[in-house]
Amino acid sequence: MGYNEDLADRIREFIGGEEEQVTERKMFGGLAFLVNGNMAIAASGQGGILVRSVPTKAVPAEAQPAIMRGRPMEGWLRVADDALRTEAQLRQWVRIGTEAACSLPPKK
């Protein structure tokens, strides 16, 4: 199963500002959006999105810790399509991922 291209298009509408450099890269069967070289959010090949988060912040109820190869990935959340139906819902997750990516040193 490939990533949802409509979801990727919706993410493009909200990601990045004047200060951030946004790039896209196919990764893990999905389409990742990198901000200043750091992955912020991805339209997942498993459905929904994968979002970078600040590990010390509370996890919203609609998100689950991301699991890769049977192990939790600290600082990453998985959000199902059901929690991404509205513009406001998706915008919130793009903001969370972008803020977490921007908190890291830029990569070249």
Describe the structure.
The protein is an alpha+beta fold and 108 residues long. It has a single domain, classed as Yope Regulator, Chain: A (2-Layer Sandwich), CATH 3.30.1460. The chain contains 2 helices and 6 strands. Strands 1-2-3-4-6-5 form a 6-stranded antiparallel beta sheet. The longest helix has 16 residues.
Throw out a few tags for this protein:
108 residues; alpha+beta; Yope Regulator, Chain: A; six-stranded antiparallel β-sheet; 2 helices
Topology:
Blueprint: H1 5-14, E1 22-27, E2 30-35, E3 38-43, E4 49-52, E5 63-68, E6 71-79, H2 87-102
Antiparallel strand pairs: 1-2, 2-3, 3-4, 4-6, 5-6
State the gist of this model.
This protein is of the alpha+beta class and 108 residues long.
Number of domains: 1
User: What is the topology, as strand order, of the major beta sheet?
Assistant: 1-2-3-4-6-5
Strand fraction: 25-35%
Number of strands: 6
H and E string: HEEEEEEH
> What is the level-2 CATH architecture name?
2-Layer Sandwich
Q: What is the CATH T-level topology?
A: Yope Regulator, Chain: A
The percent range for helix content is 10-25%
